[in-house]
Design brief:
Blueprint: H1 2-10, H2 17-31, H3 33-41, E1 58-59, H4 62-65, E2 77-80, E3 91-94, H5 97-112, E4 119-123, H6 134-146, E5 152-154, H7 158-171, E6 175-179, H8 181-190, E7 198-202, H9 215-226, E8 232-235, E9 244-246, E10 251-253, E11 258-263, E12 271-272, E13 283-291, E14 300-309, E15 315-320
Parallel strand pairs: 1-14, 4-5, 4-6, 6-7, 7-8
Antiparallel strand pairs: 2-3, 8-9, 9-10, 10-15, 11-12, 11-13, 13-14, 14-15
Helix pairs in contact: 2-3, 8-9
């Protein structure tokens, strides 16, 4: 039965997404005590949930304070968010490690083609130096699955990275430079170059090491420093087992089993899944993510990110809501 669920998730069509999401909602409502109690606290009857906007979304902060688990299981992995001293980190208990592997590999190849075509260079200081990072595990597996002898991790070895990129460029090798934001900025500042066969992909993360920049400001600096026409971005987090990708202008698209809807900041239960007929301007609000790969945690996550939602399902991340760490959790005390 588990394999049937998982196969359905990763083969879902756009037309079948809503019905599958509703089935996952019923499964999680019945088998996740935390989520069920949250739905009850909202005075929502599961029988009334017959459309995507009616599904209750669990505030993301519960991953900091509770074990978010659907069914009882001994986890194969625990992903933990990074944080400064004194912060409580999020933890995501993963029942089946293979589900995460399938999610990130299938999504990557959907957007970028076979991983074996790529040399993958991961510039991930601070992430690769700690345990429990889902981003690091994804990078490790993409490096391994690429099969390229020069794929690998870099922490602070900017000189060696520059030399390797120069060699790969001369050979015309398709290369992905996947990097945390502050490290890419440091590298571009110290070793400016002209990249023609390399995709530069930022994963976010300043970690207080630099002044915060808007995404357009960040991308302009990287474009000028590394000579690329556009900077790609990855949208992922500890609490999700799937990622969305942006190839330009910070507009993300997710795989078929992942979808973004928006809620109103002042009325978090008011959710819109798409623009009205004839409406051309994108919706604005706070991002809720449906990630069906989160089958054994919670697939319906209310994030703390402000965003825009476009008619084609693409979305943009604009920043964080104020006091995001404390909103939404007063409804349920366990």
């Amino acid at each position: 039965m588990e394999s049937e669920w998982i196969d359905k998730i990763f083969s879902v069509s756009p037309a079948g997404f809503e019905q599958l999401a509703l089935s996952v909602f019923r499964f999680q409502h019945g088998n996740n005590e935390l989520y069920r109690r949250y739905v009850q606290a909202l005075h929502v009857s599961p029988d009334q949930v017959d459309a995507l906007p009616k599904i209750p979304f669990l505030p993301i902060r519960f991953f900091k304070s509770h074990r978010v688990a659907t069914t009882a299981f001994n986890e194969e992995q625990v992903f933990e968010s990074s944080g400064t001293t004194g912060m409580v980190n999020s933890r995501h208990y993963v029942k089946h490690a293979a589900v995460y592997d399938r999610s990130f590999l299938t999504a990557f190849e959907q957007f970028y083609g076979p991983v074996t075509d790529w040399c993958i260079l991961a510039l991930l200081p601070a992430y690769a130096e700690r345990r429990g990072s889902s981003l690091t595990l994804m990078a490790e597996e993409l490096i391994r699955k690429s099969g390229h002898p020069q794929s690998g991790f870099f922490l602070y070895e900017h000189r060696q990275l520059h030399a390797l990129l120069t060699e790969l460029e001369q050979r015309g090798q398709k290369t992905l430079l996947l990097g945390v934001t502050f490290a890419l900025l440091d590298f571009a500042g110290s070793y400016p170059m002209q990249l023609r066969h390399t995709i530069v992909m930022e994963t976010g993360g300043m970690k207080g090491r630099r002044q915060e920049l808007t995404r357009p400001e960040l991308h302009t600096i990287l474009q000028q420093g590394l000579g690329v026409q556009s900077v790609h971005s990855e949208y992922g987090m500890t609490e999700l087992l799937s990622q969305a990708y942006s190839k330009a202008k910070g507009i993300y698209h997710g795989p078929a089993w992942m979808r973004v809807v928006l809620r109103e900041e002042e009325d978090p239960l008011r959710v819109r899944a798409h623009t009205a007929a004839g409406e051309e301007q994108p919706l604005s609000g706070v991002i809720n993510v449906i990630d069906l790969a989160n089958l054994y945690s919670c697939s319906f996550i209310a994030t703390d990110d402000l965003g825009k939602l476009y008619n084609d399902g693409g979305f943009e991340v604009l920043g964080r809501i104020d006091n995001s760490d404390v909103r939404g959790c007063s409804l349920l005390v366990v």
